[in-house]
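Weekly sync, protein design subgroup
Attendees: M.S., D.O., the rotation student, P.L. (late)

Item 1: inverse folding check
M.S. brought a backbone from last month's batch and wanted to see whether the design step gives back something sensible before we order anything. D.O. pointed out we never logged the input encoding, so this time it goes straight into the notes. C-alpha cells as presented (392 positions):
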C-alpha cells in the first residue's frame, strides 16, 4: 500500500512515463479554462489517501479551453435565441432596443456577430426588439448557478444586475460556487431590482458508520479502556469488560476522515475514509498483537481437584496435622517449608483458575506445581517407645 501523491497540475503524458508509479490510470478528457491541454485538473482518490500500489486512479485531463461559434439568431423569438447562446456555453447579456427589421420580441443581432469564434464562457450581447411598452430600463436574468461568486459578480455587473444578498449554506456544490438564485434565468429584471444568491460553504454533513472488533484481553486483562479519535479529536471513551465485543462508531461529517482506535493507550486500528461516498481503507490493523478471541477448550478440572486437595490439607492444620520442623509426637505433620510451598502454589493456582484468558499450558503448569507441593503430604511421625523403669 502507498500514500497517493498529488497529481493535479502535472502533465499526464509525462506522468504516465514515470516508472515509479504502477497505478492503473483511468483518464477522462474535459475542457477547462484554468489548465492548459494535457494537464491533470482532478484526481480520485484524492491526495494522501492510502491505496494499492497497482490500484486504479481516475484522472481528469484538460483539453484546454473549449472554442465555440456565435450562432445566427436573427428573427428567432428572444427566448429561443437566448437558449441557443447558452447551449453554446456563452454568457448572455440582453439589451432591449427597438428595431424594425424584426417583429416584436424577436432577436436581431449579437455582439460579437454571428460566426465569431469565442472561448466558452465568453460574454455575448443579444439585442432584442422589445414588445409594446418595452424599453431599456430592464434586462433579462442570466444563469449564474455553478459560477464562483467573483465570476458571477462580473457577469451580473456586465448585465447591470446588482446583488441584493449573498447567503452561505451547506450544499453538495463545490465550496465557493453558487447553487441557487432567487430569480430564474431569462426572467425580465428591472434595473432597480436585485438578485439573492446562495453560495456553497462546503458539502453537507453525511453519516458514516464502522464497526471495530475489540480484543478479549489487553496485556492479560479482560477489563481495559477503549478510546477513539477522529481527525485528532477524541470523541469516544469507554471501559470494556467481558470481551470480545464489536464497537460501532457512528460519525457525521464531510470530506475525509481519519479514525484511530486505542486500547489501553495502544493503537488498535487506523481507518481512513470519505464521508461523501463511504469508501474506507484500514491503514493500520494491530489486532494480531492482542488476544482477540476468548480461549476455547481450556480444561481446568485437574486444577480444581488439586486446589480442593490443597485446601483440605491446610484445613487439617491444628487438627490432626501440626506444622513443625522437629516432630516429637506420633502423628501427621508438615514442615514450615512444606506450608510455604503449598501457600505459594495454591495462590498461583487460584489466580490461574480465575483468569478467563489463561491458556491451557498456563493451567497445566499451575496444576503440576500445586500437585508437586502437596505430593507425599502430610508426613507421618512415630515417636520411639519410652524405656521402662526396672526399679533398679
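Designed sequence read out in the meeting:
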Amino acid at each position: 500500500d502507498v500514500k497517493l501523491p498529488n497529481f493535479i497540475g502535472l502533465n499526464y503524458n509525462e506522468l504516465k512515463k514515470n516508472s515509479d508509479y504502477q497505478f492503473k490510470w483511468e483518464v477522462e478528457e474535459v475542457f477547462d479554462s484554468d489548465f492548459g491541454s494535457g494537464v491533470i485538473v482532478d484526481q480520485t482518490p484524492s491526495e494522501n489517501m492510502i491505496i494499492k500500489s497497482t490500484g486504479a486512479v481516475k484522472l481528469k485531463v484538460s483539453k484546454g479551453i473549449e472554442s465555440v461559434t456565435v450562432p445566427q439568431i436573427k428573427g428567432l423569438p428572444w427566448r429561443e435565441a437566448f437558449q441557443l447562446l447558452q447551449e453554446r456555453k456563452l454568457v448572455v447579456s440582453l439589451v432591449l432596443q427597438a428595431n424594425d427589421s424584426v417583429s416584436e420580441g424577436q432577436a436581431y443581432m449579437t455582439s460579437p456577430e454571428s460566426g465569431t469564434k469565442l472561448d466558452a464562457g465568453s460574454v455575448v450581447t443579444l439585442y432584442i426588439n422589445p414588445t409594446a411598452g418595452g424599453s431599456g430600463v430592464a434586462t433579462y436574468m442570466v444563469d449564474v448557478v455553478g459560477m464562483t461568486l467573483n465570476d458571477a459578480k462580473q457577469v451580473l455587473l456586465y448585465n447591470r444586475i446588482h446583488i441584493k444578498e449573498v447567503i452561505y449554506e451547506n450544499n453538495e456544490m463545490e465550496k465557493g460556487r453558487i447553487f441557487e438564485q432567487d430569480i430564474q434565468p431569462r426572467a425580465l429584471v428591472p434595473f432597480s431590482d436585485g438578485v439573492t444568491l446562495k453560495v456553497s460553504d462546503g458539502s453537507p454533513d453525511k453519516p458514516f458508520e464502522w464497526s471495530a472488533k475489540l480484543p478479549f484481553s489487553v496485556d492479560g486483562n479482560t477489563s481495559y479502556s477503549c478510546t477513539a479519535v477522529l481527525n485528532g479529536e477524541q470523541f469516544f471513551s469507554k471501559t470494556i469488560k467481558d470481551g470480545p465485543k464489536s464497537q460501532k462508531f457512528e460519525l457525521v461529517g464531510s470530506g475525509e476522515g481519519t479514525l484511530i482506535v486505542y486500547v489501553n493507550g495502544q493503537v488498535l486500528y487506523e481507518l481512513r475514509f470519505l464521508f461523501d461516498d463511504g469508501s474506507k481503507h484500514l491503514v493500520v490493523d494491530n489486532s494480531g498483537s492482542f488476544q482477540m478471541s476468548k480461549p476455547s477448550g481450556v480444561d481446568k478440572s485437574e486444577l480444581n481437584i488439586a486446589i480442593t486437595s490443597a485446601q483440605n490439607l491446610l484445613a487439617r492444620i491444628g487438627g490432626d496435622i501440626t506444622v513443625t520442623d522437629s516432630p516429637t509426637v506420633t502423628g501427621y505433620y508438615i514442615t514450615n517449608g512444606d506450608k510455604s510451598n503449598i501457600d505459594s502454589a495454591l495462590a498461583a493456582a487460584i489466580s490461574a483458575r480465575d483468569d478467563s484468558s489463561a491458556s491451557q499450558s498456563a493451567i497445566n503448569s499451575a496444576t503440576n506445581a500445586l500437585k508437586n507441593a502437596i505430593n507425599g503430604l502430610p508426613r507421618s511421625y512415630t515417636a520411639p517407645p519410652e524405656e521402662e523403669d526396672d526399679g533398679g
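Discussion: The chain has a mean pLDDT of 87. The first strand starts at residue 2 and ends at 3.
Action: P.L. to compare against the previous round before Friday.
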